[in-house]
Amino acid sequence: MGEKFTILVIDDEPIVGDALMTVLSDNGYEVAVARTGREGLDKTSKQKFDVTITDLRLSDMMGIDVLRCIREKDPCSRVIIITAYSTPEIVSESKKLGAIDVLDKPFSPSDVLGLLNKTLCKKDLTS
What we know:
The chain is of the alpha/beta class and 127 residues long. It has one domain (6-126): Response regulator (Rossmann fold, 3-Layer(aba) Sandwich), CATH 3.40.50. The protein is built from five helices and five strands; from the N terminus they run βαβαβαβαβα. It has a five-stranded parallel beta sheet with strand order 2-1-3-4-5, with helices on both faces. Helix 2 packs parallel to helix 3. The two termini are 16 Å apart.
């Protein structure tokens, strides 16, 4: 991986955010973590991220709303929703709003890394 891709993780569960930060950092990504949707949106207004990974249910807002706000600012942005509460309706709505995918918790590090690899390879081809 020549370029260092930047990933924003938005999750109000410290164990999830910290675990993702460790796994992604150990695999060469530059990672920022936000504990609330508002904090995450604030970070996206100050820095461009290659991919944002957001939990569906945050303490202050829904991940769908985070997705909507990010995509309104940058229609080409890439967002992955993670959730323990996946339903076909959530997956459908997320995809309609432009989410790359909805990843069900619990997921393995290889699930996240595989999805990021696939997503960022597509980015390279379309950039």
